[in-house]
Amino acid sequence: MSGNPKKLMTLCIIRQHPKVLLGLKKRGFGVGRWNGFGGKVEEGESIEGAARRELREEAGLEVLQMSERGVLDFEFESDPKRFEMHIFEVNEFSGEPNETEEMKPEWFDFDEIPFDRMWSDDIHWMPLLLSGKKFKGRFLFDRPSDAEYSAKILEKELAETE
Fold first, then answer.
1. Range of 55's domain?
2. What tens digit of pLDDT does each residue of 98-115 get?
3. What is the CATH number for 51?
4. Is the pTM of this model over 0.70?
5. Residue 135 — pLDDT band, cuts 50, 70, 90?
6. Which residues of 134-151 are buried (b: 16+ CB within 10 A; e: fewer)?
7. Contact, 4 vs 80, CB < 8 A?
8. Strand (E) or helix (H) holding 68
9. What is the C-alpha separation between 126 and 88, in angstroms, rounded?
10. What is the pLDDT of residues 3-55, one digit of tens each?
11. Does the bond joining 18 to the residue before it have cis omega, within 30 degrees of 0?
């Protein structure tokens, strides 16, 4: 599986202690799941530029300050595609979160994050992000999650980085 090319992806987690802004995915990949805001890096676009664009498109927010916190590789046993996800923490932004065609944003207290309605890997790395740590890792899933099915993690590697 590891010989297939990776698709570069971004994910923004909006954090305003003690709350985090997540979006309910309304269509497409991961529909019915709560997630951060992000998507694929377009040709000729920087990873950070893609993160800013996706947050604007999915929640109507402009990034004022963000930092990269993690890089995760995702693979699926049922699919040859591989994803390299760059995860950013956004602490400062302008605008008010707005519902879009793709996402419905909602604030959650850290202790009320709906991990049971998110991708199954999130419960492993999000506490690292919320505690200010950097990380890298790899997850192999059986198949993608959707509104009715939560992907099973078949292999997991996760480590804090400097």
1. 6-161
2. 999 999 999 999 999 999
3. 3.90.79.10
4. yes
5. very high
6. bbebbbbbeebbeeeeeb
7. yes
8. strand 62-76
9. 11
10. 678 999 999 999 998 999 999 999 988 889 999 999 999 999 999 999 999 99
11. yes
d(CA 18, CA 102): 25
- pLDDT (0 to 100) of residue 17: 87
CA angle 45, 69, 136 (to 5 degrees): 95
Q: Distance of CA 26 to CAs 38, 84, 87, 146, Å?
A: 14, 23, 21, 10
Q: Which two tokens stand for residue 137?
A: 């890792």
CA distances from 37 to 57, 80, 81, 112, 156 (A): 9, 24, 20, 18, 23
CA 135 to CA 151: how far, in whole Å?
21
- What token pair was written down for 129? 């992000």
What's the domain count of the chain?
A: 1
Q: Quick check: is 1 in a domain? A: no
Q: Is pLDDT above 90 for 86?
A: yes
